[in-house]
Amino acid sequence: MSDLFSKFDPVIQQRDELLGAGYTDPFSLVMEKVESPTVAICNGKRTILLGTYNYMGMTFDPDVVAAGKQALDDFGSGTTGSRVLNGTYVGHKAVEQALMDFYAMDHAMVFSTGYQANLGVISTIAGKEDYIVLDIDSHASIYDGCALGNAQIVPFRHNDVEALEKRLKRIPEGAGKLVVLEGVYSMLGDVAPLKEMVRISKENGAMVLVDEAHSMGFIGEHGRGVAEAQGVMDDVDFIIGTFSKSVGTVGGFCVSNHPKFEILRLVCRPYVFTASLPPSVVATAATSIRKLMNSADKRAHLWENSKRLHAGLRQLGFTLGTDTPQSAIIAVIMPDLEKGAAMWEALLNEGLYVNLARPPATPANMTLLRCSLCALHTEDQVGEILGMFAAAGRATGCIS
Ligand SMILES: Cc1ncc(COP(=O)(O)O)c(C=O)c1O
After folding, report:
1. CA pair distance 291, 185, nearest whole angstrom
2. Which CATH superfamily includes the segment(s) 20-56+296-396?
3. Predicted local distance difference test score (pLDDT) of residue 96
């Protein structure tokens, strides 16, 4: 019998080597208690959270929590059904209305995760005969959506406007074309040149989908994302987003002004053939989204935090993913996986949690320590974080 698991041997070996060298497994951390959006107890120790994507700190918002508790009392713990059968409650319609109001768009469709939103929308609108032109550093859910729909995939170099144009021009005349972009790329925290890319896509007859997972709530005057910040909202056909970052719960969505959009509810398999989100989740999401509409002060503070951390890390001598802070993600580039694991563990021992990211999730084979700031990190906490980076960096030889 052939062992179907033998294809995982290289990963198993790499993991064994890392653990054999005495490092703590960076992928099995357990949060014993979560005290706030910025502090948890890990290994019995108070730990500052700097890797949770909880950008706007909504997870402990009293109104959000109260809405979830009320929905649990009123509607029970789950819907036990698909949106197209018994799984649409008033709460699902309410969160879709909150999204339409938030984005000032005509249609909103909620999925069980952001992953499923990309999987569902991309695979349904772009089929075998169609072309999907996408940034090579796109999220796994975008690639999986392309694969599920069996579309022709045409990747282009990360954030390269000319490469996008060249690829578009090579697509046969009359073929269906979808350009898929992200507002903020989550590995390095860099922003896409959407203004140019959306213009070029439209000039070449393509529809445009932008995944704003890491920008919703924070970037843009109303927190609508990079498309808003760069003034191209009206030319984007579909915006994909998630509730698992700024919104502070779980779920995914697509918003659009396309006049035929609602048909997706009947033809999109990752929407139809799965259970809908629990009532408590959609209630927390709707409350959170409505509060994010009036969160300009928090957005301003989050920018301050990002700038302060970026400048501080640079001053300490770390190599960062971007020259300037472009989002709430600041990626610290590590020389290799061993040093990355050592630094990750040293930071945890100092009382700081960040994400360790490694290939294949990362571009160009990089090992990264990804920091994601929260609007509720105080100035003192950012100072503490920099102190921890200094101590861990010197202890591991990452900085001198
Ligand atoms: C760009 C991007 N799109 C989609 C997703 C999926 O979101 P979710 O966690 O809601 O499945 C993520 C999550 O990491 C992401 O980074």
Report:
1. 25
2. Aspartate Aminotransferase, domain 1 (3.90.1150.10)
3. 98
pLDDT digits (tens, 9 = 90+) for 196-231: 999 999 999 999 999 999 999 999 999 999 999 999
**Ligand 1 atom closest to residue 252's alpha carbon, by position in its atom list:** 10
Within the chain, how many helices (H) and strands (E) appear? 14, 16
Cis peptide before 360 (omega within 30 of 0): yes
Q: Where are the domains of the chain?
A: 20-56+296-396, 62-292
pLDDT at 14 over 90: no
Phi and psi dihedrals of 79, rounded to 5?
-95, -20
Give the distance (Å) from ligand 1 centre to CA of residue 399. 32
Alpha-carbon distance 56 to 5, whole Å? 40
Q: Which atom of ligand 1 is nearest to the CA of 138?
A: 1
Distance (angstroms) between ligand 1 centre and the Cα of 322 equals 21
How close is the Cα of 200 to the center of ligand 1, in Å?
Answer: 26
Q: Which of 116, 105, 86 is nearest to 250 (CA)?
A: 116
The mean pLDDT value of the chain amounts to 96
Which CATH number does 62-292 carry? 3.40.640.10
Query: Ligand 1 centre from 114 Cα, in Å?
Result: 5
Atom nearest to 182 CA in ligand 1: 1
pTM (two decimals): 0.96
pLDDT tens per residue, range 370-392: 999 999 999 999 999 999 999 99
Q: Report the residue among 55, 115, 238, 277 best suited for mutation to probe ligand 1: largest number of ligand atoms under 8 A from its CB.
A: 115
